[in-house]
Amino acid sequence: MPEQNLTVNGETVAVDAPDDMPLLWVLRDLLGVTSPKYGCGVGVCGACTSHLDGDAFRPCVQTVGETTGREVTTLEGLAADALHPVQQAWIDEDVAQCGFCQAGQLMTAAALLVRNPNPSDADIDEAMSDNVCRCGTYHRIRSAIKRAARG
Length: 151
Description:
This protein has about 150 residues and is of the alpha+beta class. The protein has helices at about 25-30, 65, 85-90, 100-115, 120-130, 140-150; strands at about 5-10, 10-15, 50, 55, 70-75. The chain is globular, with a radius of gyration of 15 Å. InterPro entries: 2Fe-2S-bd, 2Fe-2S-bd_dom_sf, 2Fe-2S_ferredoxin-like_sf, 2Fe-2S_ferredoxin-type, 2Fe2S_fd_BS, Beta-grasp_dom_sf, Diverse_Oxidoreductases. This is Isoquinoline 1-oxidoreductase alpha subunit.
């Protein structure tokens, strides 16, 4: 197997994995990074959402070969020494119920706020529309994003 070099949460790592291995499996199985969850495997549920060079992406449909040499950030690397504003807002708004989708929701929300620091309800709904929450906490997710935007 070829050695793949990528940066995950600020740390350069080398993994022995075939080019076509989904990055989600590299993260979870080879590197022990567990916040991105396997939900659907086809990029439609959002449970695995992470950042690739700062943009939200789905590592379940991106291969390690496509991410070699790029910056991958998961929830574990979202904030260095304190909670990221979206993490704090999630706590303040009591968003999580089962929690399965929350890492993907948080990573999508963080990417949204970089692109649009003052999103409207419509902006939030559009950005978050591809992240499924089986518990239905969408109204609390929207409230948390608005709270994080206010600072």
